[in-house]
Amino acid sequence: MAGSLGAYIELMRPKNLVLAGATVPLGAYFALMDSSQVFPFDAVVFHTLAVVFFTGAGNAMNDIKDAEIDLTAHPMRPLPSGRLSLAQASRFTAVLWIASVFAHIAGLLSVPWEVSTYAPTIGIYVLAVVLMITYDHGPATKNRGLSGNLVISLLVAAVILYGAAGVGGVHLSVIWWIFGVVFMTNLAREMVKDCMDMESDKGSRRTLPMRYGKEKVRMASYVVIMVALVCLYVPFWQGPFQFGQLALQIPAILTLITLNGPLYQGKDALVAGRIRIAMLMGLLSFIVASVL
What we know:
The protein is mostly helical.
Protein backbone atom coordinates (compact mmCIF):
# COMPACT_ATOMS: atom_id res chain seq x y z
CA MET A 1 0.00 0.00 0.00
CA ALA A 2 1.90 3.02 -1.30
CA GLY A 3 1.60 6.51 0.10
CA SER A 4 3.24 8.15 3.09
CA LEU A 5 2.30 7.05 6.60
CA GLY A 6 1.56 10.65 7.50
CA ALA A 7 -0.99 10.94 4.70
CA TYR A 8 -2.81 7.81 5.85
CA ILE A 9 -2.88 9.04 9.43
CA GLU A 10 -4.15 12.44 8.30
CA LEU A 11 -6.87 10.72 6.25
CA MET A 12 -8.16 9.21 9.52
CA ARG A 13 -8.22 12.69 11.14
CA PRO A 14 -6.17 12.04 14.30
CA LYS A 15 -7.91 14.74 16.38
CA ASN A 16 -11.21 12.92 15.94
CA LEU A 17 -9.51 9.61 16.74
CA VAL A 18 -8.18 10.93 20.06
CA LEU A 19 -11.61 12.09 21.17
CA ALA A 20 -13.33 8.90 20.01
CA GLY A 21 -10.68 6.63 21.50
CA ALA A 22 -10.71 8.41 24.85
CA THR A 23 -14.50 8.31 25.11
CA VAL A 24 -14.79 4.50 25.13
CA PRO A 25 -12.86 3.98 28.40
CA LEU A 26 -14.71 6.97 29.84
CA GLY A 27 -18.04 5.29 29.13
CA ALA A 28 -16.80 2.08 30.74
CA TYR A 29 -15.38 3.97 33.71
CA PHE A 30 -18.57 5.94 34.38
CA ALA A 31 -20.59 2.74 34.13
CA LEU A 32 -18.45 1.01 36.76
CA MET A 33 -17.49 3.90 39.05
CA ASP A 34 -19.97 2.82 41.76
CA SER A 35 -19.46 -0.89 41.16
CA SER A 36 -17.16 -3.42 42.83
CA GLN A 37 -16.62 -5.14 39.49
CA VAL A 38 -13.01 -5.40 38.34
CA PHE A 39 -12.36 -3.06 35.41
CA PRO A 40 -12.14 -5.26 32.28
CA PHE A 41 -9.07 -3.71 30.67
CA ASP A 42 -8.83 -6.21 27.80
CA ALA A 43 -12.43 -5.62 26.68
CA VAL A 44 -12.10 -1.85 26.95
CA VAL A 45 -8.85 -1.82 24.95
CA PHE A 46 -10.38 -3.90 22.16
CA HIS A 47 -13.56 -1.79 22.09
CA THR A 48 -11.43 1.35 21.99
CA LEU A 49 -9.50 -0.01 19.01
CA ALA A 50 -12.81 -0.93 17.34
CA VAL A 51 -13.98 2.67 17.66
CA VAL A 52 -10.64 4.15 16.55
CA PHE A 53 -10.57 2.00 13.40
CA PHE A 54 -14.30 2.62 12.82
CA THR A 55 -13.86 6.39 13.13
CA GLY A 56 -10.82 6.35 10.89
CA ALA A 57 -12.72 4.36 8.26
CA GLY A 58 -15.66 6.73 8.44
CA ASN A 59 -13.44 9.79 8.08
CA ALA A 60 -11.64 8.20 5.14
CA MET A 61 -14.98 7.38 3.47
CA ASN A 62 -16.03 10.97 3.96
CA ASP A 63 -12.86 12.29 2.33
CA ILE A 64 -13.27 9.89 -0.61
CA LYS A 65 -16.84 11.08 -1.12
CA ASP A 66 -15.81 14.74 -0.82
CA ALA A 67 -12.65 14.52 -2.93
CA GLU A 68 -13.88 17.01 -5.52
CA ILE A 69 -15.44 19.40 -3.00
CA ASP A 70 -12.21 19.41 -0.98
CA LEU A 71 -10.27 20.66 -3.98
CA THR A 72 -11.55 24.10 -2.98
CA ALA A 73 -12.80 23.59 0.60
CA HIS A 74 -9.80 21.70 2.04
CA PRO A 75 -7.09 21.54 -0.65
CA MET A 76 -4.35 20.41 1.75
CA ARG A 77 -6.05 17.15 2.75
CA PRO A 78 -4.38 13.95 1.49
CA LEU A 79 -6.68 13.32 -1.50
CA PRO A 80 -7.04 16.81 -3.05
CA SER A 81 -3.34 17.48 -2.44
CA GLY A 82 -2.41 14.33 -4.38
CA ARG A 83 -0.54 12.66 -1.52
CA LEU A 84 -2.95 9.73 -1.75
CA SER A 85 -4.96 8.41 -4.68
CA LEU A 86 -8.62 7.38 -4.46
CA ALA A 87 -7.60 3.74 -4.95
CA GLN A 88 -5.10 3.91 -2.08
CA ALA A 89 -7.65 5.56 0.19
CA SER A 90 -10.29 2.96 -0.69
CA ARG A 91 -7.98 0.03 0.11
CA PHE A 92 -6.94 1.65 3.37
CA THR A 93 -10.59 2.19 4.31
CA ALA A 94 -11.33 -1.52 3.74
CA VAL A 95 -8.43 -2.47 6.02
CA LEU A 96 -9.74 -0.16 8.74
CA TRP A 97 -13.26 -1.64 8.52
CA ILE A 98 -11.92 -5.18 8.85
CA ALA A 99 -9.72 -4.21 11.79
CA SER A 100 -12.68 -2.54 13.52
CA VAL A 101 -14.91 -5.61 13.17
CA PHE A 102 -12.22 -7.95 14.52
CA ALA A 103 -11.50 -5.62 17.45
CA HIS A 104 -15.22 -5.43 18.22
CA ILE A 105 -15.49 -9.24 18.28
CA ALA A 106 -12.37 -9.51 20.43
CA GLY A 107 -13.88 -7.05 22.91
CA LEU A 108 -17.03 -9.15 23.18
CA LEU A 109 -15.05 -12.35 23.72
CA SER A 110 -13.04 -10.67 26.49
CA VAL A 111 -16.03 -10.62 28.87
CA PRO A 112 -18.38 -13.41 30.02
CA TRP A 113 -21.43 -14.06 27.85
CA GLU A 114 -24.42 -12.08 29.14
CA VAL A 115 -27.36 -10.86 27.09
CA SER A 116 -27.37 -7.56 29.01
CA THR A 117 -23.81 -6.91 27.79
CA TYR A 118 -23.65 -8.52 24.36
CA ALA A 119 -27.03 -7.35 23.01
CA PRO A 120 -26.58 -3.57 23.51
CA THR A 121 -22.90 -3.66 22.52
CA ILE A 122 -23.64 -5.44 19.24
CA GLY A 123 -26.75 -3.32 18.66
CA ILE A 124 -24.89 -0.03 19.09
CA TYR A 125 -22.07 -1.17 16.79
CA VAL A 126 -24.44 -2.36 14.05
CA LEU A 127 -26.51 0.82 14.27
CA ALA A 128 -23.32 2.90 14.02
CA VAL A 129 -22.24 0.99 10.90
CA VAL A 130 -25.63 1.59 9.27
CA LEU A 131 -25.59 5.28 10.16
CA MET A 132 -22.02 5.70 8.90
CA ILE A 133 -22.70 4.00 5.56
CA THR A 134 -25.96 5.87 4.96
CA TYR A 135 -24.27 9.15 5.87
CA ASP A 136 -22.12 9.10 2.74
CA HIS A 137 -24.09 6.59 0.69
CA GLY A 138 -27.60 5.08 0.99
CA PRO A 139 -29.89 8.10 1.37
CA ALA A 140 -26.70 10.17 1.85
CA THR A 141 -27.92 11.96 4.98
CA LYS A 142 -24.81 14.12 4.86
CA ASN A 143 -26.35 16.07 2.00
CA ARG A 144 -29.63 16.69 3.81
CA GLY A 145 -28.65 19.31 6.33
CA LEU A 146 -30.06 18.66 9.78
CA SER A 147 -30.39 14.89 9.32
CA GLY A 148 -26.69 14.69 8.53
CA ASN A 149 -25.83 16.81 11.55
CA LEU A 150 -27.95 14.53 13.75
CA VAL A 151 -26.34 11.37 12.38
CA ILE A 152 -22.78 12.57 12.97
CA SER A 153 -23.64 13.80 16.47
CA LEU A 154 -25.30 10.50 17.29
CA LEU A 155 -22.24 8.60 16.06
CA VAL A 156 -19.92 10.70 18.22
CA ALA A 157 -22.09 10.46 21.34
CA ALA A 158 -22.85 6.76 20.88
CA VAL A 159 -19.22 5.99 21.73
CA ILE A 160 -20.05 6.73 25.38
CA LEU A 161 -22.92 4.24 25.19
CA TYR A 162 -20.69 1.69 23.44
CA GLY A 163 -18.04 1.93 26.16
CA ALA A 164 -20.65 1.54 28.88
CA ALA A 165 -22.48 -1.28 27.08
CA GLY A 166 -19.25 -3.26 26.77
CA VAL A 167 -19.08 -3.55 30.55
CA GLY A 168 -22.81 -4.01 31.10
CA GLY A 169 -23.63 -0.48 32.29
CA VAL A 170 -25.52 1.16 29.43
CA HIS A 171 -28.71 1.29 31.53
CA LEU A 172 -27.35 3.82 34.05
CA SER A 173 -28.88 7.30 33.90
CA VAL A 174 -25.53 9.10 34.26
CA ILE A 175 -24.37 7.47 31.01
CA TRP A 176 -27.35 8.90 29.16
CA TRP A 177 -26.91 12.41 30.56
CA ILE A 178 -23.24 12.39 29.51
CA PHE A 179 -24.40 11.06 26.14
CA GLY A 180 -26.72 14.09 25.98
CA VAL A 181 -23.85 16.48 26.68
CA VAL A 182 -21.70 15.01 23.91
CA PHE A 183 -24.61 14.75 21.45
CA MET A 184 -25.81 18.33 21.92
CA THR A 185 -22.39 19.97 21.89
CA ASN A 186 -21.41 18.05 18.77
CA LEU A 187 -24.72 18.93 17.10
CA ALA A 188 -24.05 22.61 17.74
CA ARG A 189 -20.54 22.19 16.35
CA GLU A 190 -21.83 20.51 13.17
CA MET A 191 -24.30 23.35 12.62
CA VAL A 192 -21.52 25.92 13.00
CA LYS A 193 -19.23 23.96 10.68
CA ASP A 194 -21.98 24.05 8.04
CA CYS A 195 -21.97 27.84 8.33
CA MET A 196 -18.20 27.80 7.86
CA ASP A 197 -18.40 25.55 4.78
CA MET A 198 -21.56 26.98 3.20
CA GLU A 199 -19.87 28.45 0.13
CA SER A 200 -17.90 25.30 -0.70
CA ASP A 201 -20.95 23.09 -0.06
CA LYS A 202 -23.12 24.84 -2.66
CA GLY A 203 -24.20 22.50 -5.42
CA SER A 204 -23.52 19.33 -3.44
CA ARG A 205 -25.38 19.69 -0.14
CA ARG A 206 -28.51 21.38 1.18
CA THR A 207 -27.48 22.50 4.66
CA LEU A 208 -29.30 24.51 7.31
CA PRO A 209 -27.40 27.76 6.58
CA MET A 210 -28.41 27.47 2.92
CA ARG A 211 -32.06 27.18 3.89
CA TYR A 212 -32.31 29.62 6.76
CA GLY A 213 -29.17 31.77 6.64
CA LYS A 214 -26.06 31.72 8.75
CA GLU A 215 -27.35 34.08 11.43
CA LYS A 216 -30.39 31.97 12.30
CA VAL A 217 -28.37 28.76 12.35
CA ARG A 218 -25.76 30.32 14.63
CA MET A 219 -28.51 31.42 17.03
CA ALA A 220 -30.04 27.95 16.92
CA SER A 221 -26.66 26.38 17.64
CA TYR A 222 -26.36 28.50 20.77
CA VAL A 223 -29.76 27.23 21.94
CA VAL A 224 -28.51 23.67 21.40
CA ILE A 225 -25.46 24.52 23.50
CA MET A 226 -27.76 25.64 26.32
CA VAL A 227 -29.54 22.28 26.15
CA ALA A 228 -26.14 20.60 26.46
CA LEU A 229 -25.51 22.60 29.61
CA VAL A 230 -28.78 21.34 31.09
CA CYS A 231 -27.65 17.75 30.42
CA LEU A 232 -24.33 18.57 32.07
CA TYR A 233 -26.08 19.99 35.14
CA VAL A 234 -28.47 17.09 35.88
CA PRO A 235 -25.89 14.50 37.12
CA PHE A 236 -24.79 17.02 39.76
CA TRP A 237 -28.38 17.81 40.73
CA GLN A 238 -29.82 14.29 40.79
CA GLY A 239 -26.61 12.32 41.29
CA PRO A 240 -24.38 10.40 41.23
CA PHE A 241 -22.14 13.46 41.65
CA GLN A 242 -22.34 15.95 44.49
CA PHE A 243 -23.94 19.30 43.67
CA GLY A 244 -20.88 21.22 44.88
CA GLN A 245 -18.75 19.36 42.37
CA LEU A 246 -20.51 21.28 39.62
CA ALA A 247 -17.80 23.89 40.23
CA LEU A 248 -15.40 21.55 38.45
CA GLN A 249 -17.38 22.16 35.27
CA ILE A 250 -16.95 25.95 35.39
CA PRO A 251 -14.22 26.04 32.68
CA ALA A 252 -16.39 24.04 30.26
CA ILE A 253 -19.52 26.02 31.18
CA LEU A 254 -17.84 29.39 30.70
CA THR A 255 -16.29 28.28 27.40
CA LEU A 256 -19.73 27.40 26.07
CA ILE A 257 -21.69 30.32 27.53
CA THR A 258 -19.26 32.90 26.14
CA LEU A 259 -19.66 31.63 22.57
CA ASN A 260 -22.54 34.03 21.92
CA GLY A 261 -20.10 36.83 21.07
CA PRO A 262 -18.00 34.89 18.54
CA LEU A 263 -21.19 33.43 17.03
CA TYR A 264 -22.64 36.92 16.57
CA GLN A 265 -19.37 38.01 14.93
CA GLY A 266 -19.44 35.03 12.56
CA LYS A 267 -16.22 33.46 13.85
CA ASP A 268 -17.32 29.95 12.96
CA ALA A 269 -13.90 28.27 12.97
CA LEU A 270 -13.14 29.71 16.42
CA VAL A 271 -16.50 28.55 17.78
CA ALA A 272 -16.12 25.03 16.37
CA GLY A 273 -12.71 24.72 18.00
CA ARG A 274 -13.91 26.00 21.36
CA ILE A 275 -16.87 23.62 21.39
CA ARG A 276 -14.48 20.69 20.94
CA ILE A 277 -12.30 22.00 23.77
CA ALA A 278 -15.32 22.50 26.04
CA MET A 279 -16.48 18.94 25.34
CA LEU A 280 -13.08 17.57 26.39
CA MET A 281 -12.97 19.75 29.49
CA GLY A 282 -16.46 18.63 30.45
CA LEU A 283 -15.57 14.94 30.16
CA LEU A 284 -12.37 15.45 32.16
CA SER A 285 -14.32 17.27 34.86
CA PHE A 286 -16.73 14.34 35.12
CA ILE A 287 -13.73 12.10 35.76
CA VAL A 288 -12.34 14.40 38.45
CA ALA A 289 -15.76 14.56 40.13
CA SER A 290 -15.98 10.76 40.17
CA VAL A 291 -12.68 10.33 42.04
CA LEU A 292 -13.15 13.06 44.65
